Amino acid sequence: MERRSRSYVQLIKPGITLSNTLTGIAGFFLAASTVPLNVLVLVGVIFGVALIIASACVFNNVLDRKIDTRMKRTKKREVANGVINVYKALVFGSVLGVIGFVTIIILTNVLTFFLGVIAFFWYIVVYGYAKRKTVFSTIIGGVAGALPPVAGYTALTGRIDLAAIILFVILFLWQMPHFYAIAMFRRSDYSSAKLPIWSVTYGMKSTKKQILMFTITYALASGLLYVFGYTHIFYLILSVAVSAYWLHQAIAFYNKVDDEKWARNMFGASLVVLLSTCFLIAVGGYLP
């Protein structure tokens, strides 16, 4: 029973579910710096976003089960190796999704509900198809990954304004170095699965250039919340420091270590940047 429970937990890809929920919470607290805070809406954001993302991850596991068997990193995933059969996974994913969407519609608003639908569909169907067919799949998939902070924001404000768009841009740009780094140090896995990602199609050097370019673009975008008056000077100072850290990791070791080690270093740094960014977005409207 305990092993089976752990298998179901792994099915929701806890890292992805948690990180996306954190970005949703960050978006909520940015909104709360401009409109009155509502605890029930926060509960809706936390549980609604988490359950919808968890559901999408379960369905992704089902759809990718054949691909997963061809990759060393994923061949032991619960659906791929048969620990959980397809029917039970689909039921589990459906229950999570229904509860998640009901939570969102009851505790937040219709706009946030539709953002959830878009993200859910985009991740499972659009990105699921794209990663099998095009080298631009990471960029396409980034749309779904950038919507949770927007949903957290709209849950409280009920509107998509410039702040919501900036949140989307920041999280979209963060994803590119993060996932391209994975594509570099897991290149052999993706090649075995015959997936046309950038590192497989265009090589490691080209992918490194993409990572550096997106890291620089992220650094520029992260200050936009200050530029347009949604946060204050402390946010700008701290966000510049975070961006400088990531850029230093990218540039200082660009030609000093092998490509795979560089990519692993950038991946690790991206996690620090994500946590820092979520914190700064959440408190940026309250800092001096």
Automatic annotation (TrEMBL):
Keywords: Cell membrane, Heme biosynthesis, Membrane, Transferase, Transmembrane, Transmembrane helix
EC numbers for this chain: 2.5.1.141
Record's subcellular location: Cell membrane; Membrane
Membrane topology qualifier: Multi-pass membrane protein
InterPro entries in alphabetical order: Protohaem_IX_farnesylTrfase, UbiA_prenyltransferase, UbiA_prenylTrfase_CS, UbiA_sf
Pathway in which the depicted protein is active: Porphyrin-containing compound metabolism; heme O biosynthesis; heme O from protoheme: step 1/1
One GO biological process term: heme O biosynthetic process
CDD domains: PT_UbiA_Cox10 (cd13957)
Catalysed reactions, as listed in the record: heme b + (2E,6E)-farnesyl diphosphate + H2O = Fe(II)-heme o + diphosphate
Additional observations: Carbon 2 of the heme B porphyrin ring is defined according to the Fischer nomenclature.
HAMAP family xrefs: CyoE_CtaB (MF_00154)
PANTHER family according to UniProt: PROTOHEME IX FARNESYLTRANSFERASE, MITOCHONDRIAL
Protein name from the UniProt record: Protoheme IX farnesyltransferase
Name of the encoding gene: ctaB
